[in-house]
Amino acid sequence: MESMGGDVLVIASTVGLFSAYGGYASWDNQQRGLNHSWTTERRDYWQSRERANGKSPNGEILHHPHGRHGANVRIYYPVSLAEHRAIHDQLGYGNRQGGFYQYREWLNFWRELFTGF
Fold it and tell me: What is the tens place of the pLDDT at every residue in 68-86?
């Protein structure tokens, strides 16, 4: 029984490291926002779509289907201005109007880890 001390230390340390990584992965997927401004993100998006000036074509804008809180700010897609208005007429704008945030599947580190076993 006394010879198990080293093994217990290794196991406890391994569990601690996995827990720390799992916590970070979950935080990153749910809370971490952008490392730069939304204006920079939007400009880079349009430039990556071969819009040399970084501006949207034909009045298109970027819609965040899950709101702009935390990591949700990194999830967006282009829509026309009319379509964007229609979406928010139906769902609200998230300013205490209710019904704005749509469910998003988030990374469950532990489920992914244990499905491998």
Answer: 776 778 888 999 989 988 8
